[in-house]
Design goal:
The structure holds three protein chains of three kinds.
Chain A lengths: L6 E9 L5 E10 L4 E5 L6 H8 L7 E6 L2 E2 L4 H7 E4 L11 H11 L4 H14 L15 H12 L6 E5 L7 H18 L2 E6 L2 H7 L2 E6 L2 E6 L1 H8 L3 E6 L5 H8 L5 E5 L2 E5 L6 H11 L4 E7 L3 H9 L16 H9 L3
Parallel strand pairs in A: 3-8, 3-9, 6-7, 7-8
Antiparallel strand pairs in A: 1-2, 1-4, 4-5, 9-10, 11-13, 11-14, 12-13
Chain B lengths: L20 H18 L1 H21 L14 H5 L1 H25 L1 H6 L5 H29 L7 H30 L2 H16 L13 H9 L1 H14 L4 H30 L3
Chain C lengths: L1 H20 L1 H21 L15 H31 L1 H8 L4 H28 L8 H29 L4 H14 L12 H9 L2 H13 L5 H29 L1
Helix pairs in contact in C: 1-2, 1-5, 2-3, 2-5, 3-5, 3-6, 3-7, 3-9, 5-6, 6-7, 6-9, 6-10, 9-10
The chains are: A alpha/beta, B mainly alpha, C mainly alpha.
Chain lengths: 337, 275, 256
């Protein structure tokens, strides 16, 4: 792995007494400014990995560097480089949002003259200015996560760890948090290591995804790469007249594998990718087959997960679909995809 | 979250310096104190309960002063030491439960991510409990004086009594902290609480040791360090300046403090286990 | 009526079952009275040397009666904790929904409290006997002492039941416990009433627990005093507290 990686992990293992290997020899590398999505079901080893990379849990074996520092030998430097919002929104219900930030700023060694300014700026940034002087006990789940994020940013870290940042949030709060994370990477070049059990979250936010199951990384790549590995897209064509099903099947037989769906509808694989869609439209047009609907199906991360682990991802079903933040698209374009 | 109106943040700049031990302790201590005082309702019961017992037993046991050889003719003088120790025991639970909650909620992990030193974390965490102990001690002292307790050692003795009771509160708070760090749950800390009270009742809290009739009870009270904490506090009220009693009291309180704090420190280290 | 007993039996069985299988509930309810017996009878025995302290069976017996009656009262109090817990967990609502005769619920909890206390009371008695307690009362008089304990247990259980059902949260624990605790300790715990002076004498004189305690001590010593007053007081308390508990139940029913 390159020496300039923001996070570089080799054969990292964590065993618990009398337990299985929670993390079983993972390798991964995250480039500076990248959002890396670490996707897996509950108990897959995501949080254990984050605890090791944030120096809160010593590994059993293997090595890792974060920000160029060794997580075992240079813990203090690692901690100075990173910010972390860990799974439990670990906040004190009795303190206000501002008091949390001031405490964090003091412990992080910010000069006393800068603490209030920094706290105020972060509160504004995460939209908590109005609630700043209210006790956290009265905050909603989304507000707590936002405060959690602000706390992780107090010392301007270069690398941000987010452990399941949106678990249990409503769709609006979730989408707001996604926007903020995308913005941090886009505008500040922050490296983000994000664990999630939501496919949509990984798909919408991450530049690259590692799928972890039973402590091992079973697949890794950009979301399009992962989906492409699973197979080609397919198109489902439904003719206006169900009687035309046979004719339709005959016309489309030259493409990939085909399936009849009833009511004349036909689904056909496109081994050549989405580009073949235009050809299909031309063929149908020439043959004067009138089409009621024509639907392109891309393989989803759910299919990827199913293919790699043999199971559906737990909890992904209850994840509401939220639109991808605009930030990600813009950033992609800037980087040339 | 306002993406469109995002503002430019002045970069904090990298830990230009690490906050000193004192500054860190004060920051964590401030939070601990704020917590305690924002939960005033929780402060009331631990403060009032020893006073109720003091009021009831101070009168109900007053015939004991007629036992030949009893060292004072006012049982409340004799009993005043009891609420201080009981209060300190409640403080130990407050301190322990608060720390356990921080462990359970992950707040301790958040602090562990900062350059905070273990000593500052521990001392700061106990800060609120220590202040609570001091406030309680002052209240008990005032109640004692208001109900006619007189100090054989004078005003200076009352001051020493406050100092000793704060040391005792701190020692018990460290013990509570140790339990929290070892077990990590509030239930475990609270489960130990009755045991603490047992040590109080199996001491010379109600009668002087030489007047305890049952030999086995007298032996237990003699080996029970809590007896010496009580006797030191009591000596200031009923005897005057009893150097031996004070030395034993301060000695045992300091010993408990040093042991609990030392063990807490190492428990904190392994609880944090940051690399 | 059979439906009433079915409900009562079911609730009582569950109460006992939960106590027996859960050491965190069982152990303190046995250990605390034992501890009080040790601390009071052992640590304070010199109190019997106070001039005019006259109780022939001795100080262990004197304190045993207090601890015995206190454990009876706390057997009832602990049941209130269990009810409050049931409301917090939602189990009590299920009970209200499914019980055909709801007053049977109160009876069930009260029977549960009695059975629990029988265990504690037995342990405390055995401990006191091992410690060399003298028993001067006759069989019938001792039966009377047990009767006082049963009535005390019932009254406390009804009180606890009422408070728990009115408040329906575990936070009710302190409110159930404190008045019982204070009432018990404002009786002549350490010395006979005649030796108390000042405000505590005035309060103990009016305290309804005082005649119960004195009657119990008299029965154990074989020279009964105030037995009729004690039983009448407890019967009156039980009647009033039954009405209180039923109103608590009605309030819980109304709240759903």
């Amino acid at each position: 792995m390159s020496g300039s990686a923001a996070i570089d992990v080799e054969k990292l293992v964590r065993e618990f007494r009398k337990g299985p290997r929670a993390v079983d020899g993972i390798d991964l590398s995250v480039s500076p400014g990248e959002i890396y999505g670490f996707l897996g079901p509950n108990g897959a080893g995501k949080s254990t990995t984050v605890l090791m990379l944030t120096t809160l849990l010593p590994p059993t074996s293997g090595r890792a560097t974060v920000g160029g520092y060794d997580i075992v030998r240079q813990g203090a430097q690692v901690r100075a480089t990173i910010g972390a919002a860990l799974q439990e929104a670990a906040l004190d219900a009795m303190l206000t949002g501002r008091e949390h930030l001031l405490l964090q700023a003091t412990l992080q060694g910010l000069p006393s003259t800068k603490r209030r300014q920094r706290a105020g700026a972060l509160l504004e940034r995460v939209g908590l200015t109005e609630a700043a002087d209210r006790r956290v006990g009265g905050y909603s789940g989304g507000m707590k996560r936002r405060l959690d994020l602000a706390l992780a940013l107090v010392h301007s870290p270069r690398i941000l760890f987010l452990d399941e940042p949106t678990t249990g949030l409503d769709p609006q709060s979730r989408s707001a948090l996604w926007e903020e994370v995308a913005r941090l990477a886009r505008d500040e070049g922050m490296t983000v290591f994000l664990t999630t059990q939501y496919l949509e979250e990984a798909d919408a936010l991450a530049d690259r995804i590692g799928i972890i199951d039973h402590g091992r990384i079973v697949a890794e790549g950009t979301p399009p790469q992962l989906k492409a590995e699973i197979g080609s897209p397919s198109v489902e064509v439904t003719p206006t007249d169900p009687e035309l099903g046979d004719r339709l099947a005959e016309l489309l037989s030259g493409f990939g594998e085909m399936r009849r769906n009833g009511r004349g509808s036909v689904t056909v694989q496109l081994p050549g990718g989405e580009a073949e869609l235009a050809e299909i439209v031309r063929i149908l047009d020439r043959a004067e087959v009138r089409v009621q609907t024509l639907q392109l199906h891309q393989p989803s991360l759910d299919d990827v997960f199913l293919a790699k682990t043999g199971r559906k991802l737990e909890g992904s079903g209850d994840s509401p679909i939220v639109e991808a933040p605009e930030g990600r698209g813009r950033r992609r374009r800037r980087r040339g995809g | 979250m306002a993406v469109e109106t995002a503002i430019d943040l002045p970069r904090a700049g990298h830990p230009s310096r690490s906050a000193g031990l004192v500054e860190q302790t004060l920051a964590v201590g401030r939070r601990s104190v704020v917590r305690v005082f924002r939960q005033r309702a929780l402060m009331i019961f631990p403060m009032i309960f020893p006073l109720i017992l003091f009021a009831i037993n101070g009168s109900a046991l007053s015939p004991a002063t007629r036992i030949p050889g009893f060292p004072t003719d006012n049982y409340r003088d004799f009993l005043l030491a009891m609420p201080f120790i009981q209060g300190a025991m409640f403080v130990s639970i407050t301190a322990g439960v608060d720390l356990a909650r921080d462990i359970e909620s992950g707040f301790l992990n958040r602090l562990a991510m900062t350059p905070l030193r273990g000593e500052a974390m521990l001392l700061g965490q106990l800060g609120g409990a220590l202040l609570l102990g001091a406030v309680q001690a002052i209240v008990y002292l005032l109640v004692g004086v208001a109900t006619g307790v007189s100090f054989a050692s004078g005003v200076g003795g009352a001051v020493v009594l406050l100092v000793l009771s704060i040391v005792i509160s701190f020692a018990f708070a460290s013990l509570g902290g140790l339990l929290a760090l070892r077990f990590g749950t509030g239930e475990a800390v609270q489960g130990i609480f009755p045991l603490l009270f047992v040590t109080l009742f199996l001491s010379s809290s109600s009668l002087p040791r030489n007047l305890i009739k049952a030999t086995w009870f007298r032996d237990i009270a003699t080996y029970n360090p809590v007896s010496y904490l009580i006797e030191a506090l009591r000596s200031l009220v009923i005897t005057g300046w009893d150097v031996q009693a004070l030395a034993l009291g301060f000695g045992f309180a300091s010993l408990l403090l040093v042991i609990s704090l030392g063990l807490s420190q190492s428990a904190m280290r392994s609880r944090l286990a940051r690399t | 009526m059979s439906r009433f007993f079915n409900v009562a039996r079911g609730v009582a069985w569950r109460s006992i079952h939960n106590t027996v299988v859960n050491p965190a509930i069982l152990v303190p309810s046995i250990v605390f009275p034992l501890f009080f017996l040790i601390a009071f009878a052992g640590g304070l025995s010199r109190i019997s040397d106070v001039p005019n302290f006259n109780y022939p069976p001795g100080y262990t017996a004197f304190q045993f009666v207090f601890v015995f009656l206190q454990s009876a009262a706390f057997g009832g109090v602990f049941t209130g904790f269990a009810i409050a817990r049931d409301f917090d967990s939602g189990f009590a609502r299920r009970l209200l929904l499914s019980a055909p005769r709801r007053s049977g619920i109160i009876a069930g909890y009260a029977i549960g409290a009695l059975l629990r206390w029988m265990l504690t009371g037995t342990v405390v008695t055995i401990a006191a006997l091992i410690a060399g307690m003298n028993v001067n009362g006759s069989g019938i008089q001792l039966f009377g002492l047990i009767g006082l304990g049963v009535a005390m247990n019932l009254a406390a259980a009804l009180w606890a039941c009422g408070v728990a059902m009115f408040l329906r949260t575990e936070q009710a624990g302190a409110l159930i416990q404190m008045p019982v605790f204070v009432l018990l300790f404002l009786a002549p715990v350490y010395v006979p009433l005649s030796l108390l002076t000042g405000w505590i004498h005035a309060v103990a004189n009016l305290n309804p627990v005082t005649p119960v305690l004195e009657a119990g001590r008299g029965l154990l010593a074989g020279s009964p005093v105030k037995v009729a007053i004690a039983f009448a007081g407890l019967a009156g308390a039980a009647m009033l507290l039954t009405a209180f508990a039923r109103r608590g139940l009605a309030s819980a029913e109304k709240a759903g």
